[in-house]
Protein backbone atom coordinates (compact mmCIF):
# COMPACT_ATOMS: atom_id res chain seq x y z
CA UNK A 1 0.00 0.00 0.00
CA UNK A 2 1.32 3.44 -0.93
CA UNK A 3 1.77 5.94 1.91
CA UNK A 4 -0.65 8.87 1.98
CA UNK A 5 0.58 12.45 1.75
CA UNK A 6 -0.15 12.84 5.47
CA UNK A 7 2.08 9.85 6.20
CA UNK A 8 4.89 11.23 4.02
CA UNK A 9 4.55 14.64 5.70
CA UNK A 10 4.68 13.05 9.17
CA UNK A 11 7.78 11.06 8.22
CA UNK A 12 9.40 14.28 6.97
CA UNK A 13 8.63 16.04 10.26
CA UNK A 14 10.08 13.20 12.34
CA UNK A 15 13.21 13.08 10.20
CA UNK A 16 13.67 16.85 10.23
CA UNK A 17 13.21 16.84 14.01
CA UNK A 18 15.90 14.18 14.32
CA UNK A 19 18.38 16.01 12.11
CA UNK A 20 17.65 19.42 13.63
CA UNK A 21 16.19 21.07 10.54
CA UNK A 22 12.51 21.33 11.45
CA UNK A 23 10.96 24.73 12.05
CA UNK A 24 10.54 26.09 15.56
CA UNK A 25 6.93 24.88 15.86
CA UNK A 26 6.85 21.88 13.49
CA UNK A 27 7.48 19.24 16.14
CA UNK A 28 5.15 20.87 18.63
CA UNK A 29 2.40 21.09 16.01
CA UNK A 30 2.93 17.47 14.99
CA UNK A 31 2.77 16.14 18.54
CA UNK A 32 -0.04 18.46 19.63
CA UNK A 33 -2.49 18.33 16.73
CA UNK A 34 -4.57 15.23 16.15
CA UNK A 35 -4.36 13.73 12.66
CA UNK A 36 -7.34 12.45 10.68
CA UNK A 37 -5.06 9.76 9.22
CA UNK A 38 -5.27 6.80 11.65
CA UNK A 39 -1.72 5.63 10.93
CA UNK A 40 -0.26 9.08 11.48
CA UNK A 41 -2.35 9.46 14.63
CA UNK A 42 -1.01 6.20 16.05
CA UNK A 43 2.59 7.26 15.36
CA UNK A 44 1.93 10.77 16.72
CA UNK A 45 0.76 9.29 20.01
CA UNK A 46 3.81 7.03 20.17
CA UNK A 47 6.12 9.98 19.52
CA UNK A 48 4.61 11.81 22.49
CA UNK A 49 5.58 8.95 24.83
CA UNK A 50 9.18 8.63 23.63
CA UNK A 51 10.71 10.94 26.29
CA UNK A 52 9.13 8.97 29.13
CA UNK A 53 9.90 5.57 27.60
CA UNK A 54 13.44 6.55 26.63
CA UNK A 55 14.50 9.32 29.04
CA UNK A 56 17.22 11.65 27.79
CA UNK A 57 20.65 11.59 29.38
CA UNK A 58 20.95 15.37 29.09
CA UNK A 59 18.34 18.04 29.75
CA UNK A 60 18.69 19.47 26.25
CA UNK A 61 17.81 16.15 24.56
CA UNK A 62 14.37 14.83 23.66
CA UNK A 63 15.22 11.20 24.40
CA UNK A 64 18.10 8.74 24.62
CA UNK A 65 19.70 6.80 21.76
CA UNK A 66 17.10 4.03 21.86
CA UNK A 67 14.37 6.66 21.54
CA UNK A 68 16.09 8.16 18.52
CA UNK A 69 16.14 4.69 16.95
CA UNK A 70 12.42 4.31 17.68
CA UNK A 71 11.71 7.65 15.99
CA UNK A 72 13.69 6.55 12.94
CA UNK A 73 11.63 3.35 12.87
CA UNK A 74 8.40 5.36 13.03
CA UNK A 75 9.48 7.46 10.05
CA UNK A 76 10.40 4.33 8.10
CA UNK A 77 7.07 2.72 8.95
CA UNK A 78 5.22 5.80 7.73
CA UNK A 79 7.15 5.77 4.46
CA UNK A 80 6.46 2.09 3.88
CA UNK A 81 2.91 2.27 5.26
CA UNK A 82 3.64 -0.79 7.38
Describe the structure concisely.
By secondary structure, the protein is mainly α. It contains four helices and no strands.
Plain-language structure description:
The protein is mainly alpha-helical and 82 residues long. It has one domain. Helices cover 66% and strands 0% of the residues. It has four helices and no strands. The protein has helices at 5-19, 26-32, 38-53, 65-80. The longest helix is centred in the middle third of the chain and has 16 residues, at 38-53. The chain is globular, with a radius of gyration of 12 Å. 21% of the residues are buried. The mean pLDDT is 95.
Helix/strand layout:
Layout lengths: L4 H15 L6 H7 L5 H16 L11 H16 L2
Radius of gyration: 12 Å
Ranges with pLDDT <50 over ≥5 residues? none
Q: How would you describe the shape?
A: globular
Please state roughly what percent of the residues sit in beta strands, choosing from under 5%, 5-15%, 15-25%, 25-35%, 35-45% or over 45%.
under 5%
Broad structural category: mainly alpha
The ordered H/E elements are HHHH
SS elements, strand count: 0
Number of helices: 4
Q: Major β-sheet, in short?
A: none
Mean pLDDT: 95
- The percentage helix is 55-70%
Task: For the record, give the distance between the C-alpha atoms at the N and C termini, rounded to a whole number.
Answer: 8 Å
Amino acid sequence: MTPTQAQKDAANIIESFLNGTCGPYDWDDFTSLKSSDPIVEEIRKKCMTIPSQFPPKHHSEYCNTAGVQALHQFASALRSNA
